[in-house]
Amino acid sequence: MGVLERVAAVAQSAELYEELREGVSVSFRGGELEKTKAESVLGRALRVIVDGKLGFASTAGEEEESLVQAALASARHGDPAPFSFPPLTGGTHVEVLDPEIQSLPPEQLMSWGEEAVRTVNQEFPDIIVDVSLARGIREITITNTSGGERRERRGFLSMYVEAQHVKEGDIWLLWVGRTVRRRADLSPEKILEELLTFLGWGEKVVPPPTGTPPILFTPRGAIVLYLPLIAGFSGMSVYLGTSPLKGKLEQQEFDPRFSLLDDGLLPFGPRSASFDDEGIPTGRMPLVENGVVKNFYYDLRAAALAEAEPTGNGMKGGLIWGGGFRSPPSPSPRNLLVAPGDGSLKELISQIKEGVIVEGVLGLGQGNIQSGAFSNNVATGFVIKDGQVVGRLKNTMIAGNAYQVLKEGLREVGGEVEWCFGGYQSPPLVVEGVSVVTR
Amino acid sequence: MEALLGQALAKADADYAEVRWEEVSRSRVAFQRDQLMALEASREAGGIVRALVNGAWGIAVFTDPDEIPEKLRQAAALARKAARHLKDPIRLAPVSPVRDTVRAEMKQDFREVPLEEKRKLAEAYNQLILGYSKEIVSTSVRYTDTIRRVIFANTEGTYIDQETPDVTLVLAAVARRNGDIQQAFESLGEAAGYEFALGKEEKALAAAKRAVDLLSAQPVKGGRYTVILDPELAGVFIHEAFGHICEADFLLRNEPMRRVMTLGKRFGVEALNVVEEGYLPGRRGNSPYDDEGVPRRKIYLIKEGVLTGLMHSRATAHKTGMEPTGNARAVSWEHEPIVRMRNTYIEPGEASFEELLKGIDYGIYAKGAFGGQTEFEQFTFSAAYAYEIRGGELGAMLRDVVLTGNVFDTLRNIELLGDDFQLKGGAGGCGKGGQSPLPVTDGAPHVRIRDVIIGGG
């Protein structure tokens, strides 16, 4: 007898989430292969509604009966469930599995890693290179007592290369990488090209302009601005009143050139899926259209509380930080797509007389995210003078407010988008209104 | 389990192999405003094997204990493949085999406390925060307890069965006035029983009051300041900025960094002593052995201003010709052990708080920690709140205080160490190499540092 049948005897309704994770990862440290790891993990989570009250439990490697008992015990002392489990039907099938990824042998990952070390050290012999590569699948199965079943196998492939420049009195660390769902979307050559460009830009350390110079956020650096938005567009934050966007639907809260799309349907998008972690069909939904707030994202609970429709954004884990079977679902974006504007990175740089490029920061998320405030050490940043990159900056902090910057400070939106952190796609942005302080 | 592991390891086709099987039981209660976001008492189990063949590691993670023999074969096969790509083989420093059983010690065993009571406790703290002021719009109150039982066996005859309890409490308040949103929290954790979570009403009220007070606080003006760190923030500083670069795993294949971190080099003033203490019963994450079965030790990272020690796993100890220090830790059965901290602290000095304040014309007194991050010499950490120091006296409250700097410069810029001391385990934990949150404890006295960069407009 399966878990759902067992529990149906006692509970009004129930939902079983199963996650099978299988994969291989390889990591290099200091140019040498450090470890090779295989993973095969089955995790399960059970939600039940008993006498109208919600219960939750999760497990790995345990008997079904103990999972059932744990969920029932949780429901006995739980609060009324504001939602019910919907029948698992409908929706659009999204391409998320590339057989070519599954058949990649560990040796292929090892040789990509070796090639990365060789390529970087050929041009920069003193750079210490770490590489991590992984490939695998996640098979998600969701069933509930309202009927139907969702099952999907989703592939992933990732490559991250980290370069360490270590000199007494000047240590610099930077990384470049991608997480993709399709073999064809990973180009080790492009990753290395990007890394070598940054290493070239960074050979010389120069003082940055201070005050509030123009800041060019590269697609990856722009996470500083997007992190508060990821929290602020959550339907739960809006319902709880912790989002500054509460009550701002249909209002012009951003620059007219700023548009943000939450898209779960993009074929092979790194966070694409046919359904969310509650089995709700995923969708495509504008969050910001030409600066106007259009939608928030909801899971079943937040939607019920806010009297909104679930949007297929009930996720076990956020865009930047992972979750998995142990976490109850919460509203979280799918693939976030920032609409591109015009101009290449080079063109954007050439228009700046004196400014700063931000590619990576320290202390992400360690502050008052909800208000939009950020204050970060620029881990990887460069200085622009007369339209040229003249070197790398050090010991420098940037600070500002993401909502304010994206409303009043947006100067240019670049034309070339890139995938970052396995979850969002953005062009470079040029902004003003960010303070720069240095030693 | 001992027989099962013994038989499987006896057949392992590897130079060295180990199995770690973990059984975890935990409960969790979480409230946000009026919403019960989590209420759970769950159990899980899983394992990991590591095999060392011809100097290369192969690792396999699994959830079915019947698969242990097969996983050992798989790990050895992966290691064999990897070894062909290796120029500098990994070897392990010798340690004596250990046989031991360690059981969790708790005044009030939280496994015997009904889930309903834990819910009531969290709910009461939540109500206290919500009721503090009309300007409190939301909360985050979270209680967790966990027992992690780790069974570790290796091909050298070590067999350890140890349990570590863990209790954490987060008491957070979110206040809102017009468009402005501010938050404040208390974050607590110990390797203790249910008793640790009781009686924290004052902490809950303190968080609520601070969130409201922060609505009236001014954002800090960016610049370079003389800063006094409170013991909590100074503890985060020593963990983030200095502790991480004393983890020998990243020195293993990094010759230039090894030169930077040469033992005997002066890093700070004479009065500066920094300790990594392996085992302090009752402190978060503490247990007598690490996840390679190595007994924990106390080491001085800095003694009288001079670098005297690093943290090691068996592999890094062998590479550098040092003794293993028992710092190889894994956050769970899904991960292999890597070099991590446990209890890291700055020993107290002699200055009173008045002496620390004296002579500061315009400075910052930074308190509490939002968190921190380091990338070798660059570090950053966020204060939960702060006060101005004007003419040697404390002034108005400040917010958005994030401090940054170069660790080597900053250690040299430590001017005074307070005569007080506090060891604290928060509810969060440390993150490294995708393994987070690992329970750790930091400690320090008040510390005064000159020339610290603070971000802001």
The assembly state of the depicted protein chains is heterodimer
> What structural category characterises the helix and strand content of chain A?
alpha+beta
Share of β-strand residues of chain B: 35-45%
Determine the number of helices of chain A (DSSP H or I, runs of at least 4 residues): 10
Round the Cα radius of gyration of chain A to an integer and report it. 23 Å
How many structural units, i.e. domains of chain A? 2
Which word captures the global form of chain A? globular
What is the molecular shape of chain B?
globular
Total of DSSP H or I helical runs spanning 4+ residues of chain B:
9
Detail the poorly predicted runs of chain A: none
Going by helix content, strand content and strand pairing, the class of chain B is: alpha+beta
Spatial extent as radius of gyration of chain B: 23 Å
Low-confidence stretches of chain B: none
Q: Estimate the mean pLDDT confidence of chain B.
A: 95
Description:
- With 439 residues, chain A is of the alpha+beta class.
- Chain A is built from ten helices and 22 strands.
- Chain A folds into two domains: 3-201, 2-Layer Sandwich (PmbA/TldD fold), CATH 3.30.2290; 204-439, no CATH class.
- Chain A has helices at residues 3-8, 64-76, 99-102, 106-123, 188-201, 223-232, 235-240, 300-306, 345-350, 402-408, and strands at residues 13-29, 32-50, 53-60, 128-144, 149-167, 170-180, 215-217, 260-263, 284-289, 292-293, 314-315, 330-331, 335-338, 354-362, 373-385, 388-392, 396-401, 410-413, 418-420, 424-426, 429-431, 435-438.
- In chain A, strands 7, 14, 15, 16, 17, 18, 21 and 22 form an eight-stranded mixed beta sheet that branches. A six-stranded antiparallel beta sheet of chain A has the order 3-2-1-4-5-6. Chain A has a six-stranded mixed beta sheet with strand order 10-9-8-13-20-19, with no helix packed on it.
- The longest helix of chain A is centred in the N-terminal third of the chain and has 18 residues, at 106-123.
- The mean pLDDT of chain A is 95.
- With 457 residues, chain B is an alpha+beta fold.
- In chain B, strands 1, 2, 3, 4, 5, 6 and 7 form a seven-stranded mixed beta sheet that branches. Chain B has a six-stranded mixed beta sheet with strand order 12-11-10-15-24-21, covered by helices on one side.
- In chain B, strand 11 and strand 12 form a beta hairpin.
- In chain B, helix 3 runs parallel beside helix 4.
- The model of chain B has no long low-confidence stretch (mean pLDDT 95).
- Strand 2 (32-50) of chain A pairs parallel with strand 3 of chain B.
